[in-house]
Each structure stands twice: as C-alpha cells, then as structure tokens.
Amino acid sequence: MNPPEQTSEQLNNAILVWTHELAPHGIFTTDKELRITSWNHWLERHSSMRAEQVVGRPLIDIIPSLAERRLVEYFNDALRGEVRVLSRALHGYLLPMPSSGSDTTFDRMQQSARIAPLLLEGQVCGTITIVEDVTERECQNSILRESEERFRVMADTVPNIIYTAASNGQVDFINQRFYDVSGLPPRSGLGSGWLQVIHPDDAERAIIALEQSIKNGNVFAMEFRIKDKAGQFRWFISRAWPIRDADNRVVKWFGAATDIHDLKVTQLALASVQAQLESHAGRLEDTVAERTAKLRETIRHLESFSYTVAHDLRAPIRAMQGYANILLEDLAENLDEKSTTILKNISRAAKHLDALTRDVLNYTRVSTQEVQLQSVNVEELVHNVTAMNPALQAPHSNIGIVRPLHRVMAHPTLLAQSISNLLDNAVKFVAPDVMPRIVVRSELCGDAVRLWIEDNGIGMEQEIQPKIFGIFERARAADEYPGTGIGLAIVARAVERMGGACGVESEPGKGSRFWIQLRPAPED
Amino acid sequence: MELTQAHQEALTELINIGYGRAAAALSELTGRRIKLEVPKVAVYPVDKIGTALKEVLSGEVASVHQVFSGPVSGTALLLLDHDAALLLNSLLLDSPVHPGRLRAPEREALTEVGNIVLNACLGVFGNLLQVQVTFSVPRLNVESIDGVMHSISVRSQEVQYALMVHTHFTVRDSDVRGYLVIILGITSFSRLLQELESWEKRQLTR
Prior knowledge:
The structure holds two protein chains of two kinds. Chain A is α+β, with helices and mostly antiparallel strands. Chain A folds into five domains: 8-139, Beta-Lactamase (2-Layer Sandwich), CATH 3.30.450.20; 158-259, Beta-Lactamase (2-Layer Sandwich), CATH 3.30.450.20; 269-303; 305-368; 369-518, Heat Shock Protein 90. Chain A is built from 15 helices and 17 strands. Chain A starts with 7 loop residues before the first helix and ends in a 6-residue tail after the last strand. In chain B, helix 1 crosses helix 4 (104-129) and helix 1 packs across helix 6 (186-205). Chain B is built from six helices and seven strands, in the order H-E-H-E-E-H-H-E-E-H-E-E-H. Chain A binds chain B through residues 70, 77, 80-90, 112, 114, 116-117, 119, 124, 134, 137-138, 141, 145, 148, 152, 173, 186-187, and chain B through 28-30, 66, 70, 83, 89, 92-93, 98-100, 103-106, 108-109, 111-112, 115, 119, 123, 126, 132-138.
C-alpha cells in the first residue's frame, strides 16, 4: 500500500506539530506588537505556564524583567529584520525558569537563544525565538575548566617541559616551562614551532626520530639541545608515550623533557678527564720506569765513587794519624804543652776521620755487595759479634740472650754488621755511670721473625725516631755521644737489602727497643 | 575597482556610525566602556581577499559569518585570530584567558559579539541604501584562512568584491585587532558607492 499523497500544507502541519509538541527547545513567536502568538510544549513544561495563559498577551507582561535587562531591544531588532543571538556567557538566560538539572551550581536554567524576524512573503510579521537549555553544558564546562586549571597549574609548576601532540606529531599543548626556558612568545611552541629552538645539529635527528615513532607507534626518546633565552644551548632528554584508543590507534602523544645539561656537561667533562688521566698515567708509568732506571744508574755510580773516595782517603788519614803519634811518642820531651795539645787534636781528628771513612766504606759495601740469603744461626752470630768487641763484654756491659733465637734467612756479613752496629749503639747511648744492660731476643711476628735488641739507655723522643735510620742523622749531639751518624743507616740499608725491615720503640729515659725483621729460615 | 580617497573617507565615517552603535550595545551588555575603531578600509577582488587576510592573520582564525539577502545580498564576516578571540572573550566576560581551544560558551559569546558588530555595520548600509535586508542566523567557525575562503566562496556569475574593515576593539586599555569583511556582487557594490557619494553630498550641503 502506497503512503497517502502528501500536500505541502500537510507537510507544514507535520513540521508544526513536531515543533510544538516534540522539539527539545523552547520556541515561541510574537506578532509585530510583540504579543505572544505561540508557546510550545517545552516552554509550557519548563515555565509552568500553559499556552492558553500566555498566547495573546504582550511578551513584556509574561516576562517583565525583559525591560530592565534591555532585552526588548533585541526583539525590536528582529522586527527590523535582524537576527539576534543571546549568549549564555553575556546574559545567563532569556526566560527566567528554574534550573532543570539536579546540579545546584545555577538556580536558574542557563540559556542561549536566537531571536529572528518571522517573515511572511518577504515582510516581517513578527518574531520567532528559540531557547536552548545549556545548564548541563555549563556545569560540565565549569567542572572541566576546574580540572583543566588543576592540570595547567600542575603542568606549569613542574620543573620539566610537558607537552602533548596530536597523532601526527603536531604539538597541541606545551607548558609554561618551555616558554620560561626558551623565552619564546606564548603559543609559538605549538605545531612544529618548538623546532625553532632545537640545535640545528639535533633538529634533523629529532624530526627523523619523531617520524619513526609516529610510523611505528613506539615511544619517542632522544637527547637534544634547546636554545635558552640567553642564547645558550642546554641539553634535554625527552620521552613521549603514545596514547591509544580502543582500536589500538595512537590518538595522542604525551611527552616530557628534562634539563640534563649539568649532568651531560659533567659526564662529557668526566669522560674527557678520564681519557686524559689514562694517557697521563700511561706516560707517567713510562717516565717513572725510565727515571728509576736512570736514578739506579746514578746511585750505582755515586756509590762506587764514594767507595773509591773513602777507600783512597784511608791511606793519607792513617799517615796523618801515624805521623802525629810518632811526634807525640818520640819527641814528647821536646814539645811544649801547647804543641802537645795541638798534636793530640790532630791525632783525634784523624781517628774520627778514619772511623767516618770506614763507616762510609761499610755503607757503600752494604749497598753494592751481592746479597744471597741463607739460613743463619742468630745466636752464634751475636756471640761472634760480642767476642770481637771488648765494649760488648763484662765488665763494660751486660748482654743477655733470651734463648732460643729463631734462625732467619739473611746474609751473614750484613746481619753481623747490623747487629754489631745496634749493640754498639746500645752500649754507647747510656747515661754516665750506668752499666749498659742489653737483652737480645726474638719472636715470630706473622710469617716473619723479629729480632729485638733492648737496652737501658737514654732513649729518645717520639719525633726523632723515624729519622734516625737516615744517613748522618743523629739523635744526640756528637760532642755528647761521639759517632759518625752512619751506623743506623747501614743497619737500615742492610736489612732492606735482605728483604726485611727495621724500627725502634723508645721513650726518653726508658731505654730503646730496636728490632730487625727477617724471613724465618725453613725448618731442617 | 578601486576606492577613491573620498570613498574611503565616506566609508570610514559610515562604518564608524555603525561601530558607534555596536560599541554602545557592547558597553551596555558588559558594563564596560568598549571602543570600536576603524583605522583602515580597503576593497579587493574576492579572489585576492585571502592573500590580504593572510598578511594580517595567521594560524587558526575564529570567524562569525552572516549571510544577508534582499535587494542587496552577500556575506559578512568578522575575523579574529585565535589568540585575539580568546583575549576578547576574557576582556568581555572579565574572566582569565583560558589557553586552548574555544569552547561552546566562548564560541557563543563571540557569535553574539560578531552578530552585534555585523548587524550594526550592515544596518547603516541598509539605511543608506534604503533597503530591507534580512540576515541568516550567525555561525562561528574556527579554521585556517584557506578554510574560511573555501566556506565563503559562492558560485556566482557576478564579479564579487570584498570590503575589508580593519577593526580595533579597545576594552580596559587592551587592544584587540579584528577584521570585518563584507562580500558583495559588483552591482550591489556599485550601488553602495553611488549612494555613498550622494550621502556625502547631502552631508556637505546640510
């Protein structure tokens, strides 16, 4: 069955019915005198005024506030053929009606409206007004604005650059931080605007990386330099994550960029310093090896020189001493007292000089001698040393040995020389009228043997203890306790050449405890 | 078609009358003193107006369109660049500038402002020509200049011209630049200029 033929009058009626009964907006018309001529169902429902109550009455009677709100003029404009727009933002509402929603933000329904001339055959015959309820929209908008404001405050207070971009990579939001850093005017970073502050050497890389990410939907990540407002480039690291819709299509990019300039500069500087340091260290090792070799050579030359000098000096010194003694002994009665004193001084000086050259010879010998270690019986060695020196025997001194003394790996001559020097010192540095008492003992100290020589001498201050093993270093003035100042240097050198160590523990007035440490001899 | 110096002056004066009316309406609406000034008017063949607009506007542009019809017919637009639109909104509504896109409430307010300015301007032309023009409901678009050009290009046998009115809104010591463009067929345009000349003569003899 075909639908009934439709006349244009029927169609107009159908439209009118829809407008009147079903339209989701308020629609009313007036005549040229601004009397209401129609009032649709929506208006009846929201204004609680039925069409019968309003049709035929002047608009200004129905809505008295129109006059004071100067809105009547809008209707007059419409009568002149103009179309007028009433925005919610500037007017709030046209018709005072209660708010429709459950939200209590507004106590009146918020409206936007269009007031237009109603034309009949090209002539204005009245007005038609369409009122739209925008309360819900405004509520949503204020909520949205609040949350956006929160986001903006958050985005603008973080110390990073934050941005969002459309799926094609065009930046559509960038926070204040970007403008603070770059000094660019507001909004100029949008689209591809941010590229203008990227270092020219990084910009191309950035574009390629961005295109790659857009193509593959992978996280965008790179380091680049941004020109700051002072014209300096600063390093930033940037990452942007894709946000996808239900179909897994990228709809948005969310990114952040962090200033890593100081870190980067430090890293670069560190790497360069490290490289320099390594090359320096390499060169230094070579230099040290080279210099050490030269130094050894020089020392060898010097030692052999001093050996020669000391050796060659002994003959003339002995001659000097001998002739002085001949004079003193053979021609004593011919000498006056003054001459005798001078000769005695010459003889004493020559003797001291002889001792000095002998010690220097010993020192250089200790230094240059070939050293081969062997198992040594220390007790026997101490006996040999004391037997050869009357000063180390009663009644001049009392040397006790705490048995057994451990056997050590040593060079017999060097060890004998060292023990002899230490015992000489022990009996020498005692207070006047004190009988030197010396104890020799040994102990295991880790995997070494420590040989102790303890005396009842004058001792020495803590400060000078580290120095006394140096050549010509003395703890006491030479006129008080005569000596060459080489004895302990010989000990230190000899022990060092045997791969051992030596030292002292002492306090003034409480004696000294010298020690020599050597490797123990293996058990038989 | 070129505007003579006399035409320019007469047009500027006429538009100033319309703008005075619009400024009064806007001031009343917002409770703030609003000034509307016309520093310059110019006429371009319609295919050149896009280029002229691109010299003064860039990026996205908010435009309020109103088509008018009757004995004289054409299209009238008020154009503001996106930032100017946001600024004008915040000045008129006394609210902080919300960066980002224009939303429905702001678009609506801008539409009303455009409506007032366009009506005022076209109203004085209508009075001058002593014709009754009727308007379409204004609509607001946010798009590029090319998009604007595309949406106003009308197929017409007649040669068309565009009258471009540089417009300064001054609100609370802030200046917002906008551009009012009226597109007319050559017949309407010639008639407008003729009427303009006789209006000017009447002004002088008065």
